[in-house]
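Team,

Forwarding the record for the chain on the shared tracking sheet. I've put the sequence and predicted structure together so nobody has to dig through attachments.
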Amino acid sequence: MKYREPSLTPYRFVGNICAKHPELEGLRLKSNRNCIGCSKERWRVWWEKNKDYDRKNKALNARKWRERNPGKNAENIRKWAEKNPGAVLENARQNKRAIRRQAIAKLFKKELVSFYDGRPEGCHVDHIVPLQGKKVCGLHVPWNLQYLSAKENREKGASFEVS
């Protein structure tokens, strides 16, 4: 086996030599330990079968799946949060930064503190109009807050529906 420079192999390693691709001298993927040549062949076959796959609609299809499978989606989110506690903390930090950037929140600090202090047991404080929504951004002010159960708050997420 030849020595390969580390700069060329951040996601690869040299393992057993593949019978189909001896010219690769055992070069394999770290992610699944498969031969690189076999992986490329599998990808080429999949791509030929799925030529009509629309990358642009990938996000739309994912959103439709989440709407059809809310229970599975919630379970996937919970599992992801357990595996990525650092990312969960970073998201919370970003939300706090967004609140701090709003000068108007400082004007209502006493009312906001009393609203949070008056939170019923087992409830979350939710922004009616989300601070960082896709189509609209709300303010961190007392009249934009409500109490929701933890389940309702997770289901609502950063969405806002006009009635």
